[in-house]
């Protein structure tokens, strides 16, 4: 499913900046900002998909629901790109689309973002749920392999998207490119639906966000309460062993039972298990935020570097390569390196480290952060060469000079994205795994929004110091602005951020694997194949648990 879905999604990711500038007639900054806002929204909405699949719907049904929304978005894009009367005329201003045409554009773009984000918020956890949870070491190895193959699938889909679909969009017609995207999306939904009778399905439980809010509110309301010296006096309705996980923390006050009070509601008293779940999420947050700068760098490869490519020589023999297709180079690298990583690197490292996945999740993320800084430094050097050749020798540099920093960043992404997904899935409480896995995409979202903010901020500040009173990235002529300085700014920022990441990675303590709630994982589809006996057993167990909670 994700291979097919990514064909259209990544094609749009790479070519929307061209679509916005050539068809919707935005200027360079406007096209880049609209693209990063679209991507930021898509990845931000993974949180919504994860939340719904944890609390209200099964992961499969959540994916199908958001898939339908994505199909509607593609349909509107096809209509607007096909009929010229629905497109704006060139106006020479920063934006030329207004009124009903703007409404149609943004509705179609953000419906697509909503659908794509919701799918990515639940599908990774649906796949990882299929593995047996009993053997912790074997399970860790299997889940790591799954996420590697998951990345390979979306990489192959992305490779098709940035070559076939982008070429069709830019040479045959944008409507034809969107038609390919909608067909692939629909086919992906059909494929994932075919597995419904075989999936291990996790029954939706209590809202994870609600549980988090209850702990925060209870801790705030019990702010003045003293913690008991014996932690076993804290409120818990499950195994008493869970108390042993506790360390001194302000959130512990949410589990303090007040003397002289017969009944405390959920917003005044929470279990130790519930408090521990929130602690796990809070410990994850510095790791999440430490990866956002890398994704800000990624945004430049999908916007500014693509616009850069339009000013370079695209010829490959007798064939002209669209600039939006240049990311196929890192994708090809990733397609080759992922099997090598899985079959060679991991077994060799496992012999040295004894770790089931070769290196830890956080070590894998750290490698990617270093490589992203190197990629930005090289991107700045390539831009200096491109401008020098064009401005002083009236010569267009080959488009394939961009392949150096694209390739390095592709390798960085292979390490970081999978490392984050493994980390968030493995470390999250069982009832929050969709929501937690979507945090890896939340990092992308923050990175894209940060890119938009950086572009505006850099232009605002640097315009005060340049002779022509224009910022580094302002204007329509990239041969007169200073993209290379912006790249180097991001490279330096990435190095500083890596130091920050190392601090938090050393500070983080991996959780110990707890017992698995087998009643939440049923095999296969609980609604079809489970016998009446097991239904009654689970119903009785749930009733007893609710009585205990009451």
From TrEMBL:
Reading the lineage from the top rank, the first entry is Eukaryota
In its keyword annotation, does this UniProt entry include Protein transport?
A: no
Membrane topology, from the record: Multi-pass membrane protein
A Pfam family assignment: PTR2
| Claim: Cytoplasm is one of the keywords in the record | no
Q: Which parts of the chain span the membrane according to its record?
A: 7-26, 38-56, 63-83, 103-126, 146-168, 174-192, 324-344, 365-384, 404-425, 446-465, 485-504
- Which keywords, in A-to-Z order, does the entry hold? Membrane, Transmembrane, Transmembrane helix
What is its subcellular localisation? Membrane
Q: Name one GO biological process term.
A: transmembrane transport
- What family classification does the UniProt entry report for this protein? Belongs to the major facilitator superfamily. Proton-dependent oligopeptide transporter (POT/PTR) (TC 2.A.17) family.
Its recorded name reads Protein NRT1/ PTR FAMILY 4.5-like
Recall the taxonomic lineage recorded for the source organism.
Answer: Eukaryota, Viridiplantae, Streptophyta, Embryophyta, Tracheophyta
């Amino acid at each position: 499913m994700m291979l097919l879905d990514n064909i259209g999604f990544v094609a749009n990711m790479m070519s929307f900046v061209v679509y916005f500038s050539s068809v919707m007639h935005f200027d360079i900054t406007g096209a880049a900002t609209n693209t990063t806002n679209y991507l930021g929204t898509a990845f931000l909405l993974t949180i919504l998909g994860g939340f719904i699949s944890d609390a209200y719907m099964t992961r499969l049904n959540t994916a199908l629901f958001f898939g339908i929304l994505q199909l509607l978005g593609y349909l509107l894009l096809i209509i607007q790109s096909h009929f010229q009367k629905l497109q704006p005329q060139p106006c020479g201003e920063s934006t030329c689309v207004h009124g009903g045409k703007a409404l149609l554009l943004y509705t179609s773009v953000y419906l697509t973002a909503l659908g794509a984000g919701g799918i990515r918020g639940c599908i990774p956890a649906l796949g990882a749920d299929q593995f047996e949870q009993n053997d912790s070491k074997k399970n860790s190895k299997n889940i790591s392999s799954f996420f590697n193959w998951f990345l390979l699938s979306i990489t192959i889909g992305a490779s098709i998207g940035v070559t076939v679909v982008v070429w069709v969009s830019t040479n045959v017609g944008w409507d034809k490119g969107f038609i390919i995207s909608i067909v692939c999306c629909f086919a992906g939904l059909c494929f994932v639906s075919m597995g419904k009778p075989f999936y291990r399905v996790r029954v939706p439980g209590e809202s994870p966000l609600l549980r988090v809010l209850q702990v925060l509110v209870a801790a705030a309301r019990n702010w003045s309460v003293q913690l008991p010296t014996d932690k076993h006096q804290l409120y818990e309705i499950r195994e008493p062993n869970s108390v042993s996980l506790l360390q001194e923390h302000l959130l512990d006050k949410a589990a303090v039972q007040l003397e002289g009070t017969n009944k405390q509601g959920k917003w005044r008293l929470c279990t130790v298990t519930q408090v521990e779940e929130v602690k796990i999420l809070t410990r994850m947050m510095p790791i999440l935020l430490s990866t956002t700068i890398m994704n800000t760098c990624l945004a430049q490869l999908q916007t500014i570097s693509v616009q850069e490519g339009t000013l370079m020589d695209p010829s490959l023999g007798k064939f002209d390569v669209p600039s939006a297709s240049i990311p196929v180079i890192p994708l090809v690298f990733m397609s080759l390196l992922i099997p090598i990583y899985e079959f060679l690197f991991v077994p060799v490292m496992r012999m040295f480290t004894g770790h089931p996945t070769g290196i830890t999740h956080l070590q894998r993320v750290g490698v990617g952060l270093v490589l992203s800084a190197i990629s930005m430094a090289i991107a700045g050097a390539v831009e200096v060469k491109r401008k020098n050749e064009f401005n002083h020798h009236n010569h267009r540099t080959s488009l394939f000079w961009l392949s150096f920093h694209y390739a390095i960043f592709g390798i960085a992404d292979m390490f970081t994205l999978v490392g984050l997904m493994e980390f968030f899935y493995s470390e999250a409480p069982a009832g929050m795994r969709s929501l937690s896995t979507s945090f890896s995409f939340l990092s992308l979202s923050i990175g894209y929004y940060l890119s938009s903010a950086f572009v505006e901020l850099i232009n605002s500040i640097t315009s005060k110091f340049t002779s022509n009173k224009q910022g580094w990235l302002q204007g329509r002529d990239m041969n007169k602005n200073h993209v290379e300085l912006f790249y180097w700014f991001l490279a330096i920022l990435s190095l500083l951020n890596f130091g920050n990441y190392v601090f938090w990675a050393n500070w983080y303590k991996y959780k110990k694997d707890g017992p698995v709630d087998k009643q939440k994982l049923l095999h296969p589809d609980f609604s079809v194949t489970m016998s009446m006996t097991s239904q009654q057993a689970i119903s009785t167990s749930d009733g007893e648990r609710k009585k205990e909670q009451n």
